[in-house]
Amino acid sequence: MKWPRDRGTDVSALKIKTCFFEKDPSVSLYRRAFAEVAGTLLLVFCVVSAGIAIQRVTSSHVATLAVLALVTGGALCGLVVAFGDASGGHFNPLITVLQWISGDRDIRCTMAYVIGQCAGGVVGALLANVLLAGERPATYPPTDVLHLMAAEAVTTAGLMIVIFGCMRGQRVMTGPFAVAAWLTAALLAFPACYMNPAIALSATWAAGVVALPVSRALLLILAQIAGAAGALAVISIAYPRAKPAEPDSQVAEA
């Protein structure tokens, strides 16, 4: 059976226009993964830089939350619009892995994206530390771990529902703005949430108010995975996948 050279996204192969899938999956995987590296790097750089900068000009907790929420939502929206056609504009391993679980992305592409996202995030955090001469906090504020993990799971589930709802509802251009709106609202309501394993991992290298100890980052990532699993169940009910059409005789030729 003859298949396209790179079947990174079955949805693109079926020529269904939707967000969070690359426009042309036949483009080299290295180029598409590079877009994920660059996008995640810039996203984390903006978030960490904003945290360091706002901490230097004000001690207001409300101002800090507002700035981080707006910076995160705005940066992500712009980066998804900029890189969406190239790679799908994920910048979040949970999106990539859920696409793989759903059968929309192969394992090679999934691994390249996830590794690139995590590496890009760490470099973005270190770059912000160097350019703004940020320092990691000596101590971290005490937090109720169970409540923190519950909030992380709920906000992550909401983010994945927004993303996959836009994707399966074929909302081509509304996805980035819907995601930015959810992130801004969620971060204002639950400011300790990260909703992204790449950012949580990067925060263990970051300075300023977004920094995390490794133990807390690992707990947040576990909560994010749980939230993503719950979101996939909700989306599977709300948007059941149609059975794939039988390939025509030309595609099915050996």
Automatic annotation (TrEMBL):
Keyword Ligase belongs to the record: no
Transmembrane segments: 33-54, 60-83, 111-133, 145-165, 177-197, 217-239
Membrane topology recorded in Swiss-Prot or TrEMBL: Multi-pass membrane protein
Record carries keyword S-adenosyl-L-methionine: no
Keyword vocabulary terms for this entry: Membrane, Transmembrane, Transmembrane helix, Transport
One family name in Pfam for this protein: MIP
Gene3D superfamilies xref list: Glycerol uptake facilitator protein
Compartments where found: Membrane
Family: Belongs to the MIP/aquaporin (TC 1.A.8) family.
Name of the featured protein: Aquaporin
Species name: Dyella mobilis
Lineage of origin: Bacteria, Pseudomonadati, Pseudomonadota, Gammaproteobacteria, Lysobacterales
